[in-house]
TrEMBL record, chains A, B, C, D:
<dbReference type="InterPro" id="IPR050363">
    <property type="entry name" value="MIP/Aquaporin"/>
</dbReference>
<dbReference type="InterPro" id="IPR000425">
    <property type="entry name" value="MIP"/>
</dbReference>
<keyword id="KW-1133">Transmembrane helix</keyword>
<dbReference type="GO" id="GO:0015204">
    <property type="term" value="F:urea transmembrane transporter activity"/>
</dbReference>
<feature type="transmembrane region" description="Helical">
    <location>
        <begin position="124"/>
        <end position="148"/>
    </location>
</feature>
<dbReference type="GO" id="GO:0015254">
    <property type="term" value="F:glycerol channel activity"/>
</dbReference>
<dbReference type="GO" id="GO:0005811">
    <property type="term" value="C:lipid droplet"/>
</dbReference>
<feature type="transmembrane region" description="Helical">
    <location>
        <begin position="175"/>
        <end position="194"/>
    </location>
</feature>
<keyword id="KW-0813">Transport</keyword>
<keyword id="KW-0472">Membrane</keyword>
<dbReference type="InterPro" id="IPR023275">
    <property type="entry name" value="Aquaporin_3"/>
</dbReference>
<dbReference type="GO" id="GO:0070295">
    <property type="term" value="P:renal water absorption"/>
</dbReference>
<dbReference type="Pfam" id="PF00230">
    <property type="entry name" value="MIP"/>
</dbReference>
<comment type="similarity">
    <text>Belongs to the MIP/aquaporin (TC 1.A.8) family.</text>
</comment>
<keyword id="KW-1003">Cell membrane</keyword>
<protein>
    <recommendedName>
        <fullName>Aquaporin 7</fullName>
    </recommendedName>
</protein>
<keyword id="KW-0812">Transmembrane</keyword>
């Protein structure tokens, strides 16, 4: 019962569930049979959002590019929809950036929801996750535009391929497209692992479960 | 009794009730007989606010325009009070922008207040609605200045017509004035409909109402 | 006894109690005999803060002005400490700005603490008051620098008069110094009055008390 | 029992515990035998963070400096990792800035957690501490880059010494490195002292402890 509650709650927090998909083997909060629905839901949501933004800013895009939608060059606009690496970034540097940014995202989400360790107030987690994503963007977004979510990057990229930018969206940045697909998945697994090893294993049990190892119940309950 | 509580609460949330007026048939939270008072109240409030801003910045307006208040041209100032489309925006594009921005506003407000689905903490909704409006402005405000509320746009426009800008406030932007009046109303209806169809119908009933469809009560209550 | 609780709580909210001093006759939350201590406390706090900022930025001030501390001119620095009107602002415009900005401040503070009308969550009022002051600064600060508090303006002005800027701090802006002293006091009275007339009188009594028209004791204590 | 709860809780609040280490003699919340683990933990965390940032931005650093990592000069980059004083700041001015900024940090943290005096809501303290640090940075960061924490400054400085910037990181700014090590420790002690003298000693006891001096219990409990 309780295992079902968590992904739903987290999915509310800014649509940043993606990592929990990859991490569901570790966290065991999401049954495997629900994974396809989450994947398809996030894909469709992200694709629809890209199409909506295209509709909203079609006039502006046309005005700025004179109708010539390009991935590179002086009036490049593809990076409005999906991420591309900065010119100075190596493939390794870009991969490491997406990996680390997703580690930070997962660490943040798990700490915000860590009720055993002074987690955030119920009903404020979505706000805090938004601030977390803003912080990751400001601090770690310069290299790669912080996809930190496969479903935030691939569906809009597919949309741009269809909507007039062509197959350049896949070849640009030395075939960059696969990095924001794989690095966040590995990063989310690593983030969950780090949280388990360095924080969660050292948390005290919740009061109800009794008094283990002689530790006073009061200590954890008042955190 | 309870029906009175909801509009009051939402009206507190940044003055963004407007959409609920249009949507009161769908949401059934506001009795029809109360609609005129809400309409008149919002109209007077918005008109008074425009007059106050005019008073506050009369010196600055006079200094900047040399007393020549215009809707277009190098020292145009009418858009301080009501919205006008950017030069590149088509009528269809502008209408769609106001429509979609109001859809997002309503979706956000309804999710913030969705107590069946991990809604925001009571007493923090006004803050979150403010952040929501800020986000809509940053993400969707470039084309049209995001009126997303008929009563935020028409009364200040009337005020500027009277206060020295003249009838240009109605003819500018290919008679733009009717768009922020109609598009937000349709958008708010669509937003409520989308929330009903995609979220609210799938919410579990609140615990008190018992155990329906065999779903465990715990699941929803712990969300 | 219980009446003492209120100013303490509000004083926590960003140090913006000032208006309640002026308004204590209307709100009746602060006994008159406590007024002098509040006035002296705010004066000393504000004066000490100005001296601390002077100490912190003495090197920068000296570097920027070559030791010549002036109120006007190309390297004017007095407005770091107290407020001065923008060049285009008339005395009436400046007075009205400070008056209206303080009306908004008081309306905001009273609504944040209005427990009968979906007030803010206890423990979040200080944050919201900070956001309120930020909003007033962004929206209404251009003309006069939003003193909106006599004790925020006069003590730093006295400090600058002593610390090297001389009596120009009182003559600048057509003897501006008395405006941020008087306009906020009148504005705070007007703000409390507006809240009483347009909001508080229409609030429902708190359920438990059930004592209408006799004004239950609970009402003031829970502000 | 209760004494253990506090540092853990505060340590959650943005990693800004440092001052409580120095202040543990005054606050008596942290047993001395736990101090080494806190010192080592913060040192390792800060050093690892510096190494991670170096990894994340190695490509950008190399691109900007052509591989020549320097502490001063046109392409200086050392201040990305640890703090250096602005050119105009004297040693005394810099020391005073770090001292005062840490006084403000400690005053803020203690007030946020001051449950006897309308402290912040449990679960929102981390957010408020983040806003506090942002405010200190905006208001007091210009002179010295606000280290306000020895363990935020020395470990990254050591890292840069090793990673290619050399011993200049210790000689730059007239051997600045020892200031952000000592001034915050003294400042944190002073902050705790000021809070004790001016606020905490005047707080009423928590309701449970009974009714002292004839003061009603309700007064403090409703703050």
């Amino acid at each position: 019962m309780e295992t079902r509650a968590v992904p739903r709650e987290v999915s509310h927090a800014g649509g940043m569930t993606h990592s929990l998909e990859a991490a569901c083997g570790l966290q065991r909060n999401l049954p495997w049979r629900k994974l396809p629905a989450y994947l398809i839901g996030q894909f469709l949501g992200s694709f629809t959002a890209a199409a909506t933004v295209f509709g909203l800013y079609y006039d502006a895009l046309y005005d700025y590019t004179k109708g010539n939608f390009t991935v590179t060059g002086p009036t490049a606009t593809a990076s409005i929809f999906s991420t591309y690496p900065a010119p100075y970034v190596s493939l390794l540097g870009g991969f490491f950036t997406e990996f680390m940014a997703t580690v930070m995202l997962l660490l943040g989400i798990l700490i915000i929801h860590d009720e055993k360790n002074n987690g955030a107030l119920k009903g404020t987690q979505a706000l805090l996750t938004g601030i977390l994503v803003l912080g990751i963007g400001l601090g770690m977004g310069m290299n790669t535009g912080y996809a930190i979510n496969p479903s935030r990057d691939l569906p809009p990229r597919l949309f741009t391929a269809i909507a007039g930018w062509g197959m350049d969206v896949f070849t640009a940045g030395h075939h960059w497209w696969w990095v924001p697909l794989t690095a966040p998945m590995l990063g989310s697994l690593a983030g969950v692992l780090i949280h388990k090893l360095f924080i969660d294993f050292h948390n005290q049990p919740v009061p109800e479960s009794g008094n283990e190892k002689g530790q006073p119940v009061v200590e954890t309950s008042t955190l």
